[in-house]
Design brief:
The structure holds two protein chains of two kinds. Chain A is mainly α. Chain A is built from 22 helices and no strands. Classes of the chains: A mainly alpha, B mainly alpha.
Chain lengths: 465, 198
């Protein structure tokens, strides 16, 4: 998927960057062939980055790196690794991903989002920020039934942004609010990125989900405050105060959607469902609500939704398959262990390590989308984090927040592209539009990074950890 | 012929998606319903053993993933890091796109062959899956089939790109129904009152 619009670079654009992949791969290989004792790790990473830079799918670059390694650098029998290719995704936890995607697609096209917006607007719309503030709350509510950020932006943004512009909000303000609030989709459970992290590191999906609740609420509050402050300063339009009777009616109307939050989070917490089962239940529930209760989707649209969900899930599962092989390679080369030993040796403490991890992930967020980053980076960084005594769940939440930031800035921030599709604003303009909220998110990132209790207090208190 | 293959691919993955969802739904409902003390129904439900549901669900999704990945090549959903190549002059970019597509074909071709050998080998043993007791070779048949299909799709896309310069593009920026949504705005919210405009 070429996320960026097909920008045609001019014919006289510099040609030299085209040599980068060849140099990145060529130099280490040449040195190695020349007899230098270069660790295999260097060659592996050079190969991976070189291949990725050529623009081929991330999954293919991962796979080819593993194949080259297998054929040239190791005596590990090829069959044992090939077996990973078949068994890599045979875990029931991974199957939560297609289910959550399916549920999300039913909800996005159904009227659940519209009713949530009406409810949110009746609750907070009369404060400064009006519909903008309602947008933040609606995103937070929708995030609690959807596991993906771009889906949240589509669902809430496509309804609320046109309404905001009609009321006289500058397009930039609306786009900024929704692009960043949509990122709540992967922090507030359920979350596809959290499932990816759980798969890559063998952490419990349930613990991660529960741990995401409080940071999610805190981030929503912070984004809401930023919205409120900006709107008050510029005196943007507000909604009329709504009577409690109206609010109750809006609540009842949106109750079918809100009930899903109880089903997913309650079901997982009480142990009625495993996360995967909860995902399947929410897919069926979302289908019933969209088609039979709210009747926003005709039955004839269902096959299209199924096909789109299958397409998206297959892409993610394909990356997972190849990433599983890659992390097997990392383990057999002892790369994470060596990295951890080196870090401890240099006396780098938790503070420095977390700072480095944040910078690394933010940089990676510039070129890759979240699932690939989590699948590639988590197996490398996780063992180091464990050695340093960082809680696996805390580390996971921190990675997820990093991914959120990456989704909201160019060049690959998916949320930005979705928002630009809705508002018809250019990416450059949107980038300027999001900065107050992006800054808020960076402050929040620091908070999450250096205050573990924020994430692990709730699962600990509930006795899940 | 080509259209038949395309259609078959689409129907297969959409059906597997729906079937797996229903299967898990039924299995969960069954697990709890079997606990309700309704005389005849309960006996019937307890006799119904659905312990194989999880395994079948996994296999369905593995099949869906393999064929869906091939379908994904056709729809251009596989993500790459295209920050650098999009800044190159068109003719150099073209070389890299073709290189990427052939690399994809190469990888899936190798995996398909590995898979075929693997399936051939376990085809001669009598290993079966734990719960369903399906022969293992049948379960893993999706690896060679799916990978070869994917290889074919990469080549197909490469040929189209060579001829016309077009790549399939999964357009995230396009939001379905957005134009209708803009028209349907007025009935959603009451007009603004307090605050006023700047």
């Amino acid at each position: 998927m070429n996320v960026a619009a097909p920008i045609a670079a001019p014919h006289d654009a510099p040609r030299w960057p085209g040599l980068l992949p060849i140099l990145i791969i060529g130099i280490p290989v040449a040195l190695k062939l020349a007899g230098l004792a270069l660790p295999n790790a260097w060659i592996i990473f050079a190969l991976l980055f070189g291949l990725m830079l050529t623009g081929m799918p991330v999954s293919i670059s991962l796979g080819l790196t593993v194949l080259v390694y297998l054929f040239t650098m190791t005596t590990v029998p090829i069959e044992s690794v090939a077996l990973k290719l078949f068994t890599g995704i045979e875990k029931f936890e991974i199957m939560a991903i297609p289910f959550f995607i399916l549920a999300g697609n039913f909800l996005t096209h159904g009227g659940v989002a519209r009713r949530m917006i009406t409810f949110a607007s009746s609750m907070v719309g009369h404060w400064h920020g009006g519909l903008g503030l309602a947008g933040v709350l609606a995103c937070a509510l929708f995030a609690a039934v959807s596991g993906s950020s771009p889906a949240t932006v589509v669902a809430i943004g496509s309804i609320i942004l046109p309404a905001m512009i009609k009321q006289g909000f500058p397009a930039r303000f609306g786009a900024g609010v929704i692009t960043t609030s949509g990122a709540l989709g992967i922090l507030i459970p359920p979350s596809i990125v959290m499932v990816m992290y759980a798969v890559a590191t063998n952490t419990s999906v349930g613990q991660l989900f529960i741990a995401g609740i409080i940071p999610g609420i805190v981030l929503a509050t912070m984004l809401g405050l930023t919205t409120w402050w900006r709107a008050r300063k510029n005196n943007y339009p507000r909604q009329p105060v709504v009577s409690w009777r109206e609010r109750l009616r809006a609540f009842r109307e949106s109750a079918w959607g809100l009930l899903l939050i109880v089903v997913v989070i309650g079901g997982i917490y009480t142990g009625i469902f495993t996360p995967t089962e909860a995902a399947a239940m929410s897919a069926v529930y979302a289908f019933l609500v969209a088609v039979f209760v709210y009747k926003d989707m005709p039955l004839s649209r269902v096959p299209k939704v199924l096909l789109d969900s299958a397409n998206m899930s297959a892409m993610l599962l394909y990356i997972i398959t190849n990433a599983v092989m890659f992390s097997y390679l990392l383990t057999s080369e002892q790369i994470p262990q060596e990295l951890a030993a080196w870090m401890l040796d240099k006396g780098l403490g938790i503070v420095t390590f977390l700072l480095v991890v944040n910078v690394l992930l933010l940089l990676a967020g510039n070129v890759m989308e979240p699932s690939s980053i989590v699948l590639i980076m988590a197996p490398i960084l996780f063992p180091v984090a464990i050695k340093l005594g960082i809680d696996p769940v805390h580390f996971g939440i921190m990675m997820v927040v990093n991914m959120e930031v990456g989704m909201c800035h160019p060049p690959v921030g998916l949320n930005l592209y979705v928002a630009s599709g809705i508002t018809k604003m250019g990416i450059t303009e949107l980038t300027i539009a999001v900065w107050p909220w992006l800054l808020t998110m960076l402050v929040f990132l620091l908070l999450v990074t250096y205050w573990p209790a924020l994430s692990i207090w709730l699962p600990k208190t509930l006795g899940m950890m | 012929m080509m259209r038949l293959l395309d259609r078959l691919e689409e129907v297969l993955i959409a059906t597997l998606m729906a079937a797996a969802t229903l299967l898990i739904f039924v299995a969960v409902v069954h697990r709890y319903a079997a606990g309700w003390p309704i005389p005849v129904v309960q006996d019937f439900l307890i006799k119904l053993n659905l312990s194989w549901a999880q395994e079948l669900c996994i296999y369905m999704f593995v099949w869906m993933a393999k064929f869906g990945a091939a379908y994904g090549v056709r729809t251009g959903i596989h993500v790459g890091v295209d920050v650098m190549i999009n800044r190159l002059p068109p003719d150099t970019r073209r070389l890299y796109v073709l290189f990427g597509l052939f690399a994809g074909a190469l990888f899936t071709g190798i995996v398909g062959t590995l898979g075929a050998t693997f399936v051939w080998d376990i085809g001669h043993t009598d290993s079966v899956s734990p719960d369903l007791e399906l022969p293992k070779w049948l379960v893993y048949l999706c690896v060679p089939l799916g990978s070869y299909l994917m290889c074919f799709r990469f080549l197909q896309v490469a040929v189209t790109f060579w001829r016309t310069g077009d790549l399939p593009r999964h357009d995230v920026a396009h939001v379905e129904g957005i134009d209708d949504a803009i028209k349907a705005v007025p009935d959603l919210h009451p007009a603004p009152t307090a605050g006023g405009r700047p």
